[in-house]
Amino acid sequence: MCELDWRAAVAQVRGVVLGSSPGRLLASFFPCFDVVPMRLLQFSTSHYCRKVRLALGYKRIPYEVENLTPGAHRFKLKPLVGLTTVPVLLPESPDGPVAVGDSTEILKFLEGYSPEPSWAVEESEGHRRAWLLEDWLDESIGTATRFLYYDFRAKEGKSVNPSWFAQTLVKVVRVQYDISPAGVALARQRLTLALTELSQRWRDSPYLVGDRLSVADLTAAGLLSPLALIPQYRQDYPWLFERIEQIHECCQEPLPPGLMS
After folding, report:
1. Dihedral (CA of 61, 207, 209, 258) sign
2. For the segment 110-157, what is each residue's pLDDT rounded down to a tens digit?
3. Are strands 63-67 and 38-42 parallel, antiparallel or unpaired?
4. Whole-angstrom distance, CA of residue 205 vs CA of residue 225
5. What is the pLDDT of residue 34?
6. pTM for this structure?
7. CA distance 69 to 63
8. ω before 87 within 30° of 0 (cis)?
9. H-type helices in 47-141, by residue range?
10. Considering the chain, what is the average pLDDT of its residues?
């Protein structure tokens, strides 16, 4: 019987390649552990799933991903969490829930599951502000990013992946979320205001709130990452993508498309 808590051991291991086969790698460091990595049910292109991968990486929690097929995914997710949206996390732990749905709920679960390294802002008002920013980014800015990204992919961004399957998926998403010219124009205005607000924080400090990475930073880096493929945003907001790169490196998460060298 190993005397160490395996979650504490994970936090001490560096150089673990998350999202592949970390359980086997950890076992090579700690042969007394029978590590069962968490499983993340996701769409590989979802920026909400990227947000959760950043959180898992920051916590140094081993996990594996299972990429679901759009459409058929609802038959797997609905019985698990009562939702038909990704991400869904399967903790694979006898002490925890079978599944956790919704990216915000997953972050809350991870903070209790593995308190260190912490993303909690020590000052209570700052902690509350970080979660308010997370909610704003989640409910408003994540949606706006989706509208601009899929509008781009349907037009000048077709060359990103011109395959029949990819273009069909873009069309399905546009219909599913009712991505119209009026909706795209509103999303563009919303993002302009949001990036003005974020620039006042990120350009003066490496953190949106407090003196460490918080849920606000992780959420912003994940949900704004699709903009890296849109040339106009790369040109107008270089500071944004510098910070997104830094957070991905900190969380050991591969860079999003558009930032890969």
Report:
1. negative
2. 999 999 999 999 888 999 999 999 999 999 999 999 999 999 999 999
3. parallel
4. 19
5. 52
6. 0.86
7. 19
8. yes
9. 47-59, 73-81, 103-113, 124-136
10. 88
- CA–CA gap between residue 106 and residue 56 (Å, rounded): 10
User: Average pLDDT, stretch 40-60?
Assistant: 97
pLDDT digits (tens, 9 = 90+) for 78-95: 999 999 999 999 998 888
Residue 35 to residue 211: CA distance in whole angstroms: 32
Angstrom distance (rounded) from CA 126 to CA 132: 10
Query: Residue 10: is its pLDDT beyond 70?
Result: no
Contacts 24+ apart (CB under 8 A), 211-214: 212/118, 212/119, 212/121, 213/58, 213/119, 213/247, 213/250, 214/119, 214/120, 214/121, 214/127, 214/130
Give long-range contacts, CB 8 A cutoff, 24+ apart: 149-157. Answer: 149/47, 149/226, 149/227, 149/229, 149/230, 150/174, 150/177, 150/179, 151/179, 151/184, 152/229, 152/230, 157/229, 157/230
Residue 33: name the closest of 4, 13, 74 by CA.
4
By DSSP bridging, strand 88-90 and strand 63-67 are unpaired
